[in-house]
Design a protein that fits this description.
mainly alpha; 2% strand
């Protein structure tokens, strides 16, 4: 019998005890995004370690909590009269399209049918607020279509507010789609369409020369409330613009 074999027999009890102790230990947590050593990879393969990057539920949960926190912080910066705006009942379509004014049961300047749609489709509290203010300005212009002074002022407000929600979506295409949808709801009968054409005609008379549009990433200044994550949105818009330029160069 060799000395090596005898030495192994003497060490065998301690090896077995160490393995049992390892099984009782909780699986070590490997940090998200960390570079794993070969030993750590071995632990992961054998199921004795967990790696957060491989668990999508953890990331989704963290993202959900972050969104809730951001929404709460943004809500605190919305004017009180807009923050506490209750959801109106969904009106009957026929009743809501009888006149230019339509039904505004809570008298907040936004028609009930449009407000219900905004509450259901606006992705964030900031976008919902901007859309309601935009609707209010467009409706004011349409209702006062025969008073060019009031309608022109309301149109100017609506243009600035449209820039606000364009900024909040961070993409011109998304903002344009949202604007088309909301305009289709606001101007959804013949009387409203005629009034809107009159407003557009009067607006064109005083705006013959087109103004130079400010840079898209600066459109956050048109929001009549403080935007909580304004710097992040500006950075995203700037990044998207650079990506677009890169694609054009490749073509």
């Amino acid at each position: 019998m060799s000395y090596t074999f005898i030495f192994f027999l003497l060490l065998l009890p301690s090896i077995l005890l160490a393995q049992g102790a390892d099984q009782d230990r909780p699986a070590p947590q490997l940090r998200y995004g960390s570079k794993m050593s070969p030993a750590a990879m071995k632990k992961l393969r054998h199921g004795t370690a967990t790696y957060e990057k491989w668990d999508p539920s953890i990331k989704a949960s963290q993202e959900s909590e972050l969104k809730k926190k951001l929404e709460a912080e943004q809500l605190a910066k919305i004017p009180i009269d807009l923050r506490n705006d209750p959801q109106p009942p969904a009106p009957d379509y026929y009743e809501s399209t009888k006149s230019v004014d339509g039904i505004d049961s809570d008298s907040d300047g936004v028609r009930d049918d449009v407000e219900v749609w905004i509450n259901e489709n606006g992705k964030t509290v900031a976008i919902r607020t901007a859309l309601k203010l935009y609707t209010k300005a467009r409706m004011k212009a349409i209702i006062h279509s025969h008073d060019s002074k009031i309608s022109n002022q309301a149109m100017k407000e609506s243009i600035n507010l449209s820039r606000c929600f364009f900024f909040l979506t961070t993409e011109l295409i998304k903002g344009g789609k949202l604007q088309r949808q909301i305009n289709g709801l606001i101007i959804n009968n013949n009387e409203r369409s005629i009034a809107d054409n009159l407003v557009a005609t009067e607006w064109a008379k005083i705006n013959k020369a087109r103004e130079a549009k400010p840079e898209f990433y600066t459109w956050g200044k048109y929001c009549p409330f403080e935007v909580e994550n304004k710097a992040d949105l500006e950075a995203r818009i700037d990044w998207l613009a650079k990506q677009k330029k890169k694609k054009k160069k490749k073509k």
